[in-house]
């Protein structure tokens, strides 16, 4: 039985490159080209593998891009459980403007997923067996109903596992109505779901605690970008100020955050300790170029600098 399985229903072949200056109508000659397997759950699995976790990545793959993505996962040593689809796996393109240091991210839509392919995905999960943790991360492609992640929550609960969710919009809201183990919304996503301005750390803390009390999630980790992150769960809520890192690329930082937390939880560490590892992994990913994500050595080094504050400072968001 695999300890952790990640689910990516809208994976992407991530292509990153640099150019001297991004400007309209001109041919932009690029260099420093990298290609990595991408999509929320796949990125989580890549970081989990680097941290030494027993994990497997389930993903829907189709066409030449899907074949290349599978090959890249194999080269990294990440075990992949692929479900074939008729459509072509999408691509994402990130360009770094060397002139001003700005990063431009172009995200293509995913292929239309057919009902038979959804059924095959769910059957593959049932055949795979009971994992302690399932991480469902990323957007839903066309064809998948908003209740898909809620359906996964029911499946995981039936086998006694824990669903960790990093989604958005109607899919996230539906899963929360069903109840999950852990959720990692951004500040924007939390504002959209609660309908509240959440303009202070105290307001974010209180909203996260309310989700825990309502049974929407046992653990709520809210990412605040360059302001830090907030955790609510079984222990006292804490705030982790952002670490002073030189940002090279923000791609995959949130996925690395999730991976750091899930790895630590799977090792039996407390929610606070896992939160520190999440902050460390996300921060380490910011210092890596393109879609390279983070290295295990960097995560273990950076975690020593993470502060967890039970006294929430006054901060406008």
Secondary structure elements and pairings:
Layout: E1 4-8, E2 12-19, E3 30-38, H1 40-50, E4 55-61, H2 63-76, E5 80-84, E6 90-97, E7 103-107, H3 115-128, E8 133-137, H4 148-158, E9 162-166, H5 169-178, E10 180-183, H6 187-194, H7 201-213, E11 217-223, E12 229-232, E13 238-240, H8 253-266, H9 271-286, H10 296-302
Parallel strand pairs: 1-4, 1-8, 2-6, 4-5, 8-9, 9-10, 10-11
Antiparallel strand pairs: 2-3, 6-7, 11-12, 12-13
Descriptive terms for the model:
317 residues, alpha/beta, UDP-N-acetylmuramoyl-L-alanine:D-glutamate ligase, 10 helices, 13 strands, globular
Brief summary:
With 317 residues, the protein is of the alpha/beta class. The protein contains 10 helices and 13 strands. The strands form 2 sheets. The chain has a 9-stranded mixed β-sheet with strand order 5-4-1-8-9-10-11-12-13, with helices on both faces. Strands 3-2-6-7 form a 4-stranded mixed β-sheet.
Write up this protein.
With 317 residues, the protein is an alpha/beta fold. The protein has a single domain (4-20, 32-305), classed as 3-Layer(aba) Sandwich (UDP-N-acetylmuramoyl-L-alanine:D-glutamate ligase). 37% of the residues lie in helices and 24% in strands. The protein has helices at residues 40-50, 63-76, 115-128, 148-158, 169-178, 187-194, 201-213, 253-266, 271-286, 296-302; strands at residues 4-8, 12-19, 30-38, 55-61, 80-84, 90-97, 103-107, 133-137, 162-166, 180-183, 217-223, 229-232, 238-240. Helix 1 (40-50) crosses helix 8, helix 4 runs parallel beside helix 5 and helix 9 packs across helix 10. The longest helix has 16 residues, at 271-286.
